[in-house]
Design brief:
By secondary structure, this protein is α+β, with helices and mostly antiparallel strands. It is built from 17 helices and 13 strands. It has helices at about 5-15, 20-35, 70-75, 95-120, 140-145, 165, 210-230, 245-250, 260-265, 285-295, 315-320, 355-375, 385-395, 415-435, 440-455, 460-470, 475-495, and strands at about 45-60, 85-90, 95, 125, 145-150, 155, 180, 185, 200-205, 330-335, 340-345, 405, 410-415. The radius of gyration is 22 Å and the shape is globular. Pfam families: GCS2.
Length: about 500
């Protein structure tokens, strides 16, 4: 798409009547509530799915690389925000032994030919939390901040041609378009800095849609402990750091900078405006969850027409939901009436070192929701504020965070072994409840249990590598890039068949 065509699409979005759009979304939400009450969005069983984002690097140099759009189409991956991004989604499957096996096999079935095909163009697809090596001959600052003005519209040079991404920089909504982290300050004219980060997103479809608030409440309370296990983005591209001592930068690094990047880029810089990206509230009813989407400020209204999908009856509500950025969020959609579902989208987790690691998080999350809701686990009573504190502490310190949990006996604990002992036991029980054998359930739990037992995460592994190099007086940039090269090399050997703990 040419720059003038993209600018024209952005101006079309700018011309949409926001109030009229919001009215239609609110009207559709009322019809959605009726469908939920009538059972349309119920499932006969729990169902799981997974989104997996990757970024591309030059197979020889390890530097970030733009992926030709035609190549993405050829390998069947979807566009993401940056030209270097790619995304795939698994088909929803029942939460049972065969369904989880199908999830893992589908990821491998799609990644295997994709890796082979991109390899012909010297491109390597990487599963990670944040890229750190900019394209050859460019700085990360230039790559993230490069933009042009086309017919009065600000367009990011290295961003995909989806008009909604570019419209975010051309609306009245005060999107921050900046990053503020320890020793990092970056300001841009677009939301392109968000393309630093990549994630995995497990989905859990609720059997009985009106029960969503109960499942959601537990999802918020396991968010901190699961994020602490998954942290994988302790370092930025080196040229983004301010002029500071290398040792100080390493010592002050947060272990999951993906959280702050997403919030800083898309939230208003002014504290007087409500954040779009944030830890979500508890809901008293499924109607409250729908109302929360409706109440969220619309950034990019669009003139949309209903197509042939069942959920196109709620097409404005669905579009509005696309910018309802919460770290855990409720979703209501389905291409046909039998496929209509209410689900929880778990968004805190960064990209993981291997496929099996990603599926382990998916299985453990699903197993936890199954068990905690069925036994009415006492952690349900944990204050929302404490759950939120756990989440942000985990993003900064990983397994070193001061996490709080309420045990099956109703006692509060901060003992990490007790917390994860209960979590993994509950996850195993939940998977067995869904028909998995004990050995199969343990297979999914084991990669994460070993992280907890060894007190090691991908972010800690990265941090230790960089810290050791800096201690040897290796310049920070070389230390980070050396670590990243080692990460990619290890992943090449284990992405499809292995786990992160195989690296240790």
């Amino acid at each position: 798409m040419s720059g003038s065509e993209l600018a024209a699409r952005v101006r079309e979005a700018q011309a949409v009547d926001r109030e009229a759009f919001d009215r239609r979304a609110a009207e559709e939400a009322e019809r959605l509530k009726t469908e939920v009450r009538d059972g349309t969005f119920d499932n006969t069983e729990a169902i799981v799915g997974l989104e997996l984002e990757l970024y591309a690097v030059d197979a020889r140099s390890g530097s970030l690389k733009r992926v030709p759009r035609g190549l993405l189409d050829l390998i069947g991956f979807e566009k993401e925000l940056g030209l270097h991004n790619a995304e795939m989604q698994t088909s929803p499957q029942p939460l049972n032994e065969h369904g989880l096996v199908a999830q893992e096999h589908e990821l491998k079935a799609n990644l295997t030919p994709a890796l082979k095909r991109t390899g012909r163009d010297d491109i390597r697809l990487v599963s990670d939390g944040m890229w750190t090596v900019p394209p050859t001959g460019e700085t990360a600052t230039d790559y993230l901040c490069d933009s042009v003005e086309q017919d009065g519209v600000r367009i990011a040079t290295n961003m995909s041609d989806a008009a909604r991404y570019h419209t975010m920089a051309n609306t009245d909504y005060p999107t921050g378009m900046r990053i503020e982290a320890p020793h990092v300050s970056l300001s841009a004219d677009t939301v392109m800095p968000e393309s630093l980060i990549t994630s995995i997103q497990p989905h859990y479809q609720i059997p009985h849609a009106p029960d969503l608030p109960e499942y959601f409440r537990y999802a918020l309370r396991v968010a901190g402990p699961l994020l602490a296990l998954g942290v994988n983005a302790p370092f930025f591209p080196p040229d983004l750091y301010d002029d500071a001592d290398d040792t100080e930068i390493v010592e002050d690094a947060w272990l999951e900078n993906r959280i702050t990047v997403f919030e800083d880029v898309l939230n208003p810089a002014d504290d007087d405006d409500a954040d779009k990206v944030r830890f979500p509230p508890d809901f008293d009813s499924v109607e409250d969850a729908i109302d929360d989407v409706v109440a969220d400020e619309t950034i990019v209204p669009v003139d949309v027409e209903a197509g042939g999908r069942f959920d196109d009856a709620f097409v404005h509500f669905r579009h509005k939901h696309g910018s309802y950025w919460r770290w855990i969020r409720p979703v209501f959609d389905g291409p046909t009436e039998p496929q209509a579902n209410a689900r929880i989208e778990f968004r805190p987790l960064p990209g993981q070192p291997t496929v099996r690691d990603a599926v382990s998080f998916q299985a453990v999350f699903a197993g936890l929701l199954t068990t905690l809701t069925s036994i009415e686990h006492p952690v349900r009573a944990m204050d929302w504020e404490r759950a939120r504190e756990n989440f942000y502490a985990a993003s900064r310190e990983g397994l070193g965070a001061d996490l709080t949990w309420i045990t099956t006996d109703g006692e509060e604990t901060t003992d990490l072994d007790h917390i994860y002992g209960e979590l993994f036991e509950a996850a195993r029980q939940g998977l067995e409840t869904q028909g998995l054998s004990t050995d199969a359930a343990r297979r999914y739990v084991r990669p994460l249990r070993e992280r907890a037992d060894r007190r090691i995460t991908p972010a800690r592994w990265k941090h230790d590598h960089v810290a050791a190099a800096v201690d040897r007086n290796v310049p920070l940039a070389e230390a980070i890039w050396g670590m990243q090269s080692t990460y990619v090399d290890h992943q090449e050997e284990t992405l499809l068949e292995g786990t992160f703990v195989d690296w240790l």
